[in-house]
Predict the structure.
Amino acid sequence: MSFFTLHAPTVYLNVFARPDIADSYDDYYRTDMGQHVDLLEKAVVSELLQRIPRGAMLEAGCGTGHWSSYFLEQGFNVTGIDASEAMLSIASEKKLDAQLMKADVHALPFEDEQFPVVASITMLEFVEDQDCALRELYRVLQPGGWLLLGALNARSVLALTQPRDETFRHANFMTPEELTAKLQLFGEPESRYCVHLTHDFQLIDGTPEARYIHPVFMAAAVQKIR
């Protein structure tokens, strides 16, 4: 694992640059709820990964390395970038077999068509310009390569409580239709959904009632054909 810092302007609306937010980020995954949510999210991502060949992967918004570790376990050779030095510092302490670097997703320091796979899990909500970020991910993705995205649903209960949440109150959630429309730049996406939370934040995935609840987590995979 190597950790490089590129001294470029940061243009994220990035709450994760705050050390207190970064230091507590992984705590959620140690709770019973966090562990259950993590299993649900990784289950739908695993379904989408079945179509994606293993090899080099750019992970945009790698944060503390939580998903980096998963992608490494799935057989990818991960290069992770993030705008937050605080988050990257935590990731580097995990001694992951990945290259980690500070970089701006609006101006990626990579050549055109460099990566066969690009992944980004709940990063787009926190960037200044989602369309610019997606164009950069498109630029560095090889023709025929795959983009894997995880995003938060603007119709979910999490979005309803967003103004009161320190982490999410400035985030820019998308609806499923908005996410699908943005991914048309690449091709026709395949999507999966999970984490169905009631208004009192009860997790009801796997129950008949879940069909009436907007999911929090949206996962999509799309092959670059344009």
